[in-house]
Amino acid sequence: MIEPLNETERADALDGLPEWDFNDARDAITRQLVFADFVEAFGFMTQVALIAERMNHHPEWSNVYNRVDMTLTTHDAGGLSSRDIELAEAIDAIVGD
């Protein structure tokens, strides 16, 4: 069973993810990215999809033209877990943050 992050772990993790916002109501992190066009947005989503599949941890996300909205939380843990932080870091590496 995957455990949710405690308050200290969550705060430390969020310090390392300045581009992500914490959603207290969902115990999740969110981020919106805007790309030049649909092809660039979809290419990004394809890269993330491959990583997420390897991790067996998938984002909640949506895409409208050049915008991608993402929410990361671990349903099995009932909130934010180390898996979300790892996926957020991988996403940031793709974007170049």
TrEMBL record:
Keyword Transmembrane part of the UniProt annotation: no
Keywords: Lyase
CDD domains reported in the protein's UniProt record: PCD_DCoH_subfamily_b (cd00914)
Protein name: Putative pterin-4-alpha-carbinolamine dehydratase
Family membership noted in the UniProt record: Belongs to the pterin-4-alpha-carbinolamine dehydratase family.
EC numbers for this chain: 4.2.1.96
GO-annotated molecular function: 4-alpha-hydroxytetrahydrobiopterin dehydratase activity
Pfam family, one: Pterin_4a
Keyword Cytoplasm tagged: no
Catalytic activities: (4aS,6R)-4a-hydroxy-L-erythro-5,6,7,8-tetrahydrobiopterin = (6R)-L-erythro-6,7-dihydrobiopterin + H2O
Protein source organism: Sphingomonas aerophila
InterPro entries: PCD_sf, Pterin_deHydtase
Top-level taxon of origin: Bacteria
HAMAP family on file: Pterin_4_alpha
Lineage summary: Bacteria, Pseudomonadati, Pseudomonadota, Alphaproteobacteria, Sphingomonadales
Any one of the GO BP annotations: tetrahydrobiopterin biosynthetic process
